[in-house]
């Protein structure tokens, strides 16, 4: 709902809901999306990369994957949850597809900002690049013969980056609240002793 100001005071106006199906469906956008998914189906079926054996299934069969897996991954994901249509693995396909869509959305945000304002705000650029960095690392290290493990720090860049950003944001917000609320903020800090994680920080 929208609140609009009129001479008599404030009035509440309920937005109209489109009744035409064309407002909810765009043929061109749908074809682009379906074509994007179809391309991923083709790429997933291409015989590229090293084929490795997965964990044995309950019936004794062993699934083939074009990526590495480990005990930790199998424990959380479960090798029973590997639906396939022939050699087409639905779970891995959806995982890869979601990462590619994630990166494309970030690029679309940057493109829209450039088209609208003829510039890209630095904060938007930093957020988009940081978000694209995470799926790129996952696609590279988990799908191309490199395990996500403690042997390499790069896959952990995103959580480390967010942790550092959160701590810095907490400090700046705390200083702002201290200057604005003064004694009230001090009383609050006496009651709430931990800033982010209880008994840790």
Automatic annotation (TrEMBL):
Localization: Membrane
Keywords: Membrane, Transmembrane, Transmembrane helix
InterPro entries: ERG24_DHCR-like
Domain of life: Eukaryota
Membrane-topology descriptor: Multi-pass membrane protein
UniProt cross-references to Pfam families, sorted A to Z: ERG4_ERG24 (PF01222)
Family, as annotated: Belongs to the ERG4/ERG24 family.
Protein's recorded name: Uncharacterized protein
Organism encoding this protein: Tegillarca granosa
């Amino acid at each position: 709902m929208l609140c609009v100001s009129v001479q008599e005071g404030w009035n509440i106006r309920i937005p109209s809901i489109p009744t035409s199906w064309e407002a909810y469906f765009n043929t061109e956008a749908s074809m682009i999306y379906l074509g994007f998914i179809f391309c991923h189906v083709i790429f997933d079926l291409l015989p590229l990369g090293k084929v490795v054996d997965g964990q044995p299934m309950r019936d004794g069969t062993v699934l083939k994957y074009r990526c590495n897996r480990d005990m930790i991954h199998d424990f959380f994901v479960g090798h029973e949850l590997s639906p396939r249509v022939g050699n087409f693995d639905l779970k891995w396909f959806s995982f890869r597809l979601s990462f590619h869509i994630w990166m494309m959305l970030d690029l679309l945000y940057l493109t829209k900002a450039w088209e609208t304002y003829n510039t890209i705000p630095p904060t938007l650029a930093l957020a988009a690049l940081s978000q694209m960095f995470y799926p790129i690392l996952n696609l590279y290290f988990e799908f191309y013969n490199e395990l996500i493990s403690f042997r390499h720090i790069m896959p952990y860049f995103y959580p480390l980056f967010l942790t550092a950003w959160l701590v810095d944001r907490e400090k700046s917000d705390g200083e702002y609240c201290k200057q604005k609320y003064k004694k009230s903020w001090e009383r609050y800090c006496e009651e709430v002793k931990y800033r982010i994680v209880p008994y840790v920080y």
